[in-house]
Amino acid sequence: MAKQKYDVVVVGAGPGGLCCNALLCKWGLKTLLVDKNTVPGGKAITVERNGFLYDLEPKLQVPMTGSAFPQLYAELGIEDQLGAIPCEQVSMSYRHKSADKYKTTVMGQTAKDPKPLFDLWGLDEKEREEAIPTLAELAFLTPEQFDAMDDMTFDEWLSQRKVPWGVYSFFAMQANGSLAEPIDLVAASEQGAIMQHIATAGGGGYYKGGFGRMLGDIADYIKANGGEIRMGTRVEKIKVSNGRVTGIATDNEDFDASIVVSDVGIQPTVLKLVGEKEFDKSYVNYVKDLLPGWAFTAVRYFLNKKVVKEQMAMIYADETWLNMERFLKIRAGHVPEEVLAFFTVPSNYDPSMAPADKQCIIAGTICAPDPKAPEIEMQNNKIDQMLDKIFPGFMDACYERQATGPAEISAATRDSVLPGQGGECVGLAQIVGQCGKHKPSQKTPIAGLFIVGADAGGRGMGTHQSGESGMNGARLVRRYHTMRQAAT
Ligand SMILES: Cc1cc2nc3c(=O)[nH]c(=O)nc-3n(C[C@H](O)[C@H](O)[C@H](O)COP(=O)(O)OP(=O)(O)OC[C@H]3O[C@@H](n4cnc5c(N)ncnc54)[C@H](O)[C@@H]3O)c2cc1C
To answer: Which pTM was predicted?
Structure first.
């Protein structure tokens, strides 16, 4: 039987691959999407079990306004299906380094009035006056001014201003929470723009039925518009001949295409699926030197009663956010007294996601992306302790606890092809030298091979960044496809 020939094969049904593929279908290209998992969504799948619907990891900081998904849904003409639910209530718990106890405040997502935060941080009048110019400057920076901040860390940007400790500590926690990065490596352009977005438009929210439902609807659009999807199919090889893509080999079948879009990460794509020998040594070294982002280790708690009223929570102390020094200490075996913890409660956004009398809480803390990291269990146990401290009786109400760390995240999504890499929360680290104008190109040196997803072509927070990259990648691919047609 003659083999099927596709205009484009997309490898990976994460947010990047799905957004790219949906637009290509809308524009009439013949596509095949292949993913090794049985459900689409990548790191953002939603699971249904025992009356609960839940994501495997805490999804907290996702812009609900101006993000990739409302744009894509509008472009596909399915905007009434999006089901975006902006976060209305965040529980913020903070302990100053001089205090024994945590203070908690419940606030809205935007921080147009900084007073609740100033009170939480315990700033005196003089410190409040000192904080305002930097916060106001950040709120009004233009996209061009952010672009000019690609080459400095957020720590460097703050150190050029006079900011009280409470403000610095909050930003350091946010660098861990929103980008899974340390404040002393994260690019000021990325982190600054995210802080502006959170303060002015709210940074968090959820989708009715979960992230996986929202992404699953994109997969349904692809199928309904002529795209073929093969789930449960691992791609073993992206085939290349004379520097050009010719198709893919899966665990049971080969497919031909002169364009392949990869959503599996730039390092697994280049070093494993294509193979080093097809590239120049300098490109291989460039790819090998890219630093993976940090990970989150997540614990899901199933509670026999409703313990938490808010939609999300952030629990941090001056000693618990991680910069490089603290991270390396933990990696060397240090056991911290406490960890920072973030969590979401899906049913506090969409009550249909849990039985009426129960709750599923998905919590996480920052950790190494190394699937073999030995400290993960210790960090998970510390999350238990933190939740019990802030919400007394929390663990007593828990009848089932499940953990997902970098090993499980890597197994489910990104292959570990270099030591210490694979369990990344987002993808490549969004640090100086790797984002903005320094982000890897979506177009690779192999003709017809493109990268979408977290590693190339987007910016900002996780799922949004991958979605934006998918949409940008689709435009690039369509132009390339048209040019190739003109050339033959
Ligand atoms: C713990 C945790 C918390 C997070 N919190 C947030 C949050 O609050 N807000 C937010 O916006 N984002 C969050 N994210 C990040 C977000 O989920 C990711 O940034 C996003 O899913 C990345 O999308 P992607 O398209 O780049 O790739 P992925 O989601 O990694 O998808 C890649 C896909 O490729 C498939 N694949 C890989 N190799 C192969 C192969 N050889 N053959 C076939 N298929 C293959 C995988 O199965 C997977 O489906 C979080 C992630 C984690 C892990």
So the answer is: 0.97
